[in-house]
TrEMBL record:
PANTHER family per UniProt: PYRIDOXAL KINASE (PTHR10534:SF2)
Source species of the chain: Roseibium aggregatum
GO BP terms, alphabetized: pyridoxal 5'-phosphate salvage
Signal peptide residues on this chain, from the entry's feature table: none
Gene name of the record: pdxY
Protein's name in the database: pyridoxal kinase
Entry annotated with the keyword Kinase: yes
GO cellular component: cytosol
InterPro entries linked to this entry: PM/HMP-P_kinase-1 (IPR013749), PyrdxlKinase (IPR004625), Ribokinase-like (IPR029056)
EC number of the protein: 2.7.1.35
Amino acid sequence: MNITQGQPAAAKKPLLVVTSQVVRGGISGRGLVFSLERLGHSVWFLPTILLPWHPGQGKGTRITPSPADFSSIVADLAASPKLGEIGGVLTGYLGHPDQAAAIAELVKAVKRHTPDAPYVCDPVMGDRTDDGDGGLYVPQATAEAIRDTLVPLADIVTPNCFELSWLTGREVKSELQALSAARTLGSDRVLVTSAPALRRNAIANLLAGPRGAVVAEHAMVADAPHGTGDLIAGLFLSRHLDGLSDEDALVRAAGSAFELVARSVKKGADELLFAEEQQSLGRPMALVSSRRVLETTSRA
């Protein structure tokens, strides 16, 4: 336990996570809940859909609550007298486009209790393929609901390059294009995961924040398991709530994700090994470089 002037460190606030749930593997809700609890947060977890495993690992049954049932449980949570304990909200994959409106009401309810509780929207909707092309892997109606209903509410948005391009209608093939597009979203902070890197065989994470832009860059890991975007979003939220600067929070989040990926791949795993390699979540030793980015484009 950390002690300051003879007093225990303040407990971290619980977080609300709204995203998909898998039975096997560490993507999305499973990985996020474990990671955030490992960092000291209690987690309220609302699944948007239940899957046996990541869709990329094979066909499986999808169980999605009806819009009416989902809205009912959201209403229960929004009316809870304990909602005021929530210190931040993170949303990800949606199972149905109608979930966006219900989630928006829940975010607003949290904000009524705690106006400074940050809302992180991870707009999980699509990605680029190895040949550079990309596409949506959710129905277009779901992607539009995220864009039109959730992104405008968010304090922090964490798209990958394809998602940023789709959300803004802009080409995102260079660092400056990514930064320019990020500034058009209107959020306090936009964290672009897997952004264009300056070094070869490297991965960059670009953060456009209120005090400028910063990049955390590290070596690329071949055949990386799924789930790094979810993970970085959650880790950045936790470090942000710890009071770290944008640069320090980004470097810590990227370092943990990189180290966890590298250790998992080294062991031949097709999933992130959260339990076995959980030390990477708290105190990563991986080498991650950071640099400031000079903005030469308008923020308008």
